[in-house]
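User: I want to check something. If I give you two sequences, will you return the structure for each one separately, not as a complex?

Assistant: Yes, each is folded on its own. Here is the first sequence with its structure:
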Amino acid sequence: MTVRTGDAFVIQKSSLDDLLGQLRQAGYETYGPRVDRGAIVYRPIASTADLPRGYSTEQKPGSFRLAQTGSRRLFDATPGADSWKPMLFPARQSLFEVTPSNGDLQLTFDQTEPTRRALIGVRACELAAIEVQDRVFLRPDFSDPGYRQRRENLFLVAVDCHDPAATCFCHAMGTGPAVRDGFDLALSELGDEFLVRVGSQAGASMIGDLQATPATAFHHQAAATATERAIRSQVRTIDTTDLPALLLSALDSPRWDQVGDRCLNCTSCTLVCPTCFCWDVVDTSDLATGRTERVRLWDSCFNPDHSYHAGGGLVRPTVRARYRQWLTHKLGSWVEQFGVSGCVGCGRCITWCPAGIDITEEVAALRQEAGE
């Protein structure tokens, strides 16, 4: 069977196990969502038995819980705090180490070959987040070599989101809930079948050996109906009209004082965000061996020292200033820097904020102040 990019097929759910097997034979480690201690996490999976079959999530500001539905669906549980970001931008990465050697110093760079990974069940908002990270780390003027290697070693099996959480607003951000591009294979879960769309030549090579039949208009319509239902179910939204200009004109708004009083400065929103990319570089030394290592670690614009200037102190000394920096960068100046919003509407920052701060409410409040 000749398979081309853009083709669509139907496979039985059992054939997903065959796909996982083929990916491992091709040298990929397979990762996907699974249940661990009451949450959805992204971990290695061996078969569909590892996926969160019959689970959905109940999310609201500051709250996340799993619910067992009793269904046989595999991908209804929307993501938890985990994102795919660590697969490309690790939370801790060794850059190089210096060790004493025969009275001299030896400099060794980390040259670990990135693992080939197949990510199973990547949502549309998460694909958009990967694209945002690509714009950050694969710029024309600078390309992060580690990120590039890890990116080139990814195989992406995306999935249409048919059961968004109450904190999701991907439709408002134009990133979902249906997968549009940026994948190798895309799945839409339809009863006991998957509609499979081929997005790359690598994806086409994996479909050829599966028991797949060409998709019909019925299957495409069923997927479109599920997408429309998912769009209608989203209760949160953001009006993105001239949003960067709105935020720039609201830098002195009293709303920042209100949200600053609520914010715990815990950095949770930046840690769970799939697009935040701030990092710090630290040196660690072992006095016993004389070994020194330089490490890149995730950082957050909520950390007070993140804006520290030698001789000038903290640029953003208050929680109000740090929250304002995060929100105006994410939804405003990010567009000027990278040509796209830094928010993909996944809702993680809402769900995992212990104070229940809702980014969609903050934008709406600023619009109301501006008389819009």
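And separately, the second sequence with its own structure:
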Amino acid sequence: MTGILTSVYFPTTDTGYVIGSDYLTSRGVLLKTIDGGTTWDTLSIGTTNLLESCYFTNASIGYAVGYKGTIVKTINGGMSWDILQSGIGNWLHSVFFTDANTGYVAGGKIFKTTDGGTSWIVAFSDTNYDIVSVYFPDYLTGYAVGVNNNYGLIVKTNDGGNTWTVYPTNSYCELYSVCFPNAETGYAVGSQGVILKTSNSGLTWTPLVSGTYNDFTAVYFTDTITGCVVDNSGEILKTTDGGTTWTILESGTNNFLSSVYFSDANTGYAVGDCGTILKTTNGGYPLGIKNTPTTLIPLKIYPNPGFNVITIEYPTIRDLAHLSILNLQGQQILTRQLTEPKTKIDISTLPSGVYFVRVINDRMVEVGKIIKE
């Protein structure tokens, strides 16, 4: 597919779901496997909006969330989806359910449902805080991460989302993902290679040495000491000693990776840009590429995130190569014919947000994503 895959979830060993958005059609995308990722079927998900996170309470009932407060639900294993009238206008980045009826979504604020998504209330809100990921190790205890004035932010509830406590991290970064393999031990990751760990249920957080300044986009731990993180350059890092040391795994891709999930200690999946789906069956040594289209070559875009000017590197330049920048609704907002291997683009006038870059060249499509700060 010609798009970005943003979330992967396996409610059973063999049955899994991947969601995202197609670059060319600008529609939400849903892929399903029933054979552990050997084959994937494309299903209709009933929305044209970008989807960013999915969660299944069992093999049949699942939710996906994304742009403009989109929340969709299936009760038949993804064969059909209902658009829930959430009343939420925020861009939703994360969804997590503690049982069949009780769930949370994060998008600036934290929203909660107790009736399977029929209605939602604001569980946590502060104009200074931008919440992007939520995780509950048990029914009452939950954590969410994000950013507060460029500093990493962690909030915690002990009463099922009724009240929340803020834990400043003193880390000058943004936090994008959080995971708790048990009630005491948790990890949060984010920009500039930051990995934070708690061993006392979130009371204190210790920075770990990752060895990179790449932006970590997702984290998943199968137990308290064994876990993986993925980043914006296609790297996957693994630890087997609770984060004391990290090993870079051979992912086989340079694509932006958005999500990682393990269905058991050895079987894991990571997804990202250009329709990339990676699978490991031996804990990550190494991962193999599944369903990565050979006609899609990732562009080099830097700096990313960018503020004023970005450089797009396209080494295999040919005649009649056209570049387009599109917003999340698929609207083309900038076009240019490429004539050099490196092209500088002024993005200073663009509003802050996420944009798609598309290069069409000799019947080939190459895609990428930029974040405008």
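Because they were folded independently, the notes below concern the second chain alone. Confidence is low (pLDDT under 50) at residues 288-297. The CA atoms of residues 50 and 129 lie 23 Å apart.
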